[in-house]
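This part of the workshop introduces the protein records we will be handling. A record pairs a protein's sequence with a compact description of its fold. Comparing a sequence with its tokens is the quickest way to learn the format. To make this concrete, we reproduce a full record directly below:
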Amino acid sequence: MDSIIYVSPDNKFKVIDLNKEYNGNNKETPYAIVTDLLEVCLHRAYGSVVKQYSPFVLLTDEMFEAMHDSYKNDHREHMRESLFHDTLSLDAAVFLVDEYSNPVRISESLYTMDCLFKRMSKLANGAGPRIYKKYVIGFTSREIATQEGTTFDEVRKCIYRALPELHKIFVDLGVVA
């Protein structure tokens, strides 16, 4: 683990940087010392080293492993959740990402939107309706796949392959440079 910043020469304790372990969310107590020693014994035997890392939280190996595993599981769950909720929220205007990952705002002009939807409907492999469902209505790729009776991967790849052509449409309509 890269959050371990010090291990005693006799392996009696290790110092954990909680800001690295938990992405900078621990400003008041930045360190944890993981050991089976009592705090009094720790200070007596390693006082000069321990002093450098004050204030700290004293944890047993079991406590630290449980916290670390919990954080890893939360992170994994967040990543799994993001696979199911892959929509981009939209309000009055449609936001898409151009090839350089810069947000691009499409004009709210009805004429421009009408031209856009007409051109999108002509995209290859049914990408136009899929892009409309994903970015305008707000369906996830999984929801679109379920509606169409196809796989999530097929919908995702279809939309991804159509993005360069969609970008050309935006340029033709003067929405992006």
